[in-house]
Amino acid sequence: MNKNPIKEKIREILDYYEGNKNLALIPVLNMIQDEEGFISDERIKEISGILGIKKKRIIETLTFYHFLKRERKSKKTLYICTNISCLLGGAEKIMEFLKENKNELNFEFKECECIGLCDHAPAGLIEFKPLKNLSPEKIKELNEKI
Amino acid sequence: MKKSERLLIKKKYSENIEDYIKKGGFSSLRKILEGNITPDEVIEEVKRSGLRGRGGAGFPTGLKWSFIPRKTSLPKYLVCNADEGEPGTFKDREILLYAPYLLIEGIIIASYAIGAERSFIYLRKEYKWIYNKILKAIKETEERGFLGNNILKSGFNHRIKLFMGAGAYICGEETALLESMEGKKGFTRLKPPYPATEGLFGFPTVINNVETLANVPIIFEMGADNYSKIGTPKSTGTRLIALSGIVKKPGVYEIEQGKITLKEIIEDLGGGIKEGYHISGVMPGGISAPPLLPDELDVPYDYESIDEKGSMAGSGGVIVFGYKKDKRGEILNLLKRAVQFFKEESCGKCTPCREGTWTIYNILEKISKKDITFEKGIKVLKNLPLKMKGLCACPLGESCAIITESFLKKYYDELE
Questions:
Q1: B288 and B178 housed in the same domain
Q2: Which of A142, B224, B335, B371 is a plausible cystine mate for B49, CB 3.0–4.6 Å?
Q3: Contacting residues of B for A68, CB less than 8 Å apart
């Protein structure tokens, strides 16, 4: 039997939310985004089939949120907070360093809004794990590990 | 009571559920359910405690609960707002990490008070790394019999479900949060109807902030009368302050409301300003709170005192800002970055906010690139806020207008 693990997971999420299909939509989108790095048209069709929500409504929802994407990303994304506290902590320098070394990076990077790590500025998220007190050295280390 | 340190919430920080129970955890829930205290009595007690919402608006919590219709067979919901997105705010993160059981106990008590069999924790995606910890805490609480059917043989059934957002500041606004939970984009709703009558999926719903709910078990442990003696008559209890920016020791500090000034928060708790920096001002409640100048910091930290200074205690995020060497351009850069945030996070529903935040940003950008003269830019900026205030479904655009006005007034010379 050729099982589709994503479909299984969608059903698990639906179970967790006691069959409430609208409530399950964003958790389902999050799951697919995290598993596959983007949400393909094919997946939108599958979600629509299981949750009974129109495709265009799913697209309307997913294009609203920062962390849901319709385009395929081949690399992991590093989010760098550049909001006030991180800016005061030197986030601009981190962004400059990333831009200068763009070609050698094994991940993509993107500026983002406050991630609630202001006491460890400048901070970022890689795969939604916190990166604290960032420096060019830490970026280099991350690049080797990833 | 001392001015700061482990006062109420921090005393309940627990590594695991055993540790929490040892510290008196779940005794408030026991007191209520085993002592046959009615939901109405719970609401009265919370009203008497003077507890106010810690998310930003400071609305009286007991009063909010009392708006839920009592005589209805409709399902009711409680939603814990863990979508802490106000820049400079990370105090709910501490509770989620270090006091999840206290939060869960608060959620169960609040749900009992309003008659909700289901509650949700709406966690921001930026805190995905805390998701499993909360899930585990909920499961452990279930295993101990404090969640599930017929809790402590009281006949009260309750379950908590964890829900994660997908990245949108606006979903911290309660009606946008509900839209998001319903699988939609985070557009704010026009009020009325208020969530208390038409909330999640149209059913009566209470939305409370993490820190607000974490205070609830403490109120029942010490009694509302004792609780209300802490802080000031109008701002009771303690607050978790998230201190960041150019201070030596940024972090989360618990303070008694009204008993410590902003200056003391920076000097005594934050260890003062970092070496080599000059302070320009403080945003006392996240970036939506207008800045206070260095000579305005001798103000006690509570809702009223900071309101009187023309700002707000808001989310409890205290950002100390300033510059290292060259003052020129620094403040303009900061204001521009703050406005960029509102521009990015405007949900786009109301025109004054969507267009207004973009326009302010574009003018600041043009001023900083010297594409237009400072005088010309300021002329446009001075008239804009009038067209943004009081015209939208939520305060996002208005906040952007207010802080722009405030920066122009207080830092005119430095912006030029």
A1: no
A2: B224
A3: 166-167
